What we know:
The chain is built from 2 helices and no strands. By secondary structure, it is an all-alpha fold. The chain has one domain (2-30, 46-75). Helix 1 (2-25) packs antiparallel against helix 2. The termini are close together. The mean pLDDT is 82.
Amino acid sequence: MNTITSILPYIQIVLAVVLVTAILLQKTGSQVGGAFGGGDNFSSAFHTRRGFEKTLFTITITIAVLFVISSLITLI
């Protein structure tokens, strides 16, 4: 149990960085500034995800769930 406790903070840091990167990659549209709040692409916010975008969305959800699980394990 001590090995998990000592490794868990590093796992959380890696998961956090990967999660933030995956969320930023999901921004649709041609402007990079749109990922940081710029641009006015409201009409492109609602569409069907296909291909790589759907895969990235699923990976993002999986990483978020793993991050929550690791955070709950930290509390125990």
